[in-house]
Specification:
This protein has one domain. The N and C termini lie far apart (65 Å). It is mainly alpha-helical. The protein is 74% helix and 0% strand. α2 runs antiparallel to α3. The protein has 3 helices and no strands.
């Protein structure tokens, strides 16, 4: 039986913005997803549950950081608009 993830390897995806990904935590999400896929391929339920929890945690932390960045960008845009007036 062929694995669901045979043709899809996130660890092989080139990333020109690696430093930025590391800063916000996206690299952690990527690594957690790799671990999750490996656990799934190996059909190891306990490892899968741990990897799923790790993935959720890393995703939430990254999402929170991105929300802060979006808020900062919106503030900058409002300040720039005020300066033009």
């Amino acid at each position: 039986m062929q694995s669901l993830f045979t043709d899809y390897r996130v660890d092989n995806i080139p990333c020109p913005h690696q430093m930025h990904l590391n800063s916000i935590g996206a690299e952690h999400v990527r690594l957690a997803c790799v671990d999750l896929m490996q656990a799934c391929e190996q059909m190891q339920k306990q490892k899968f549950l741990l990897a799923l929890d790790w993935t959720k945690t890393e995703f939430t932390q990254t999402q929170n950081k991105l929300q802060v960045l979006v808020q900062m960008e919106r503030r900058i845009m409002r300040l720039e608009a005020k300066q033009k007036n």
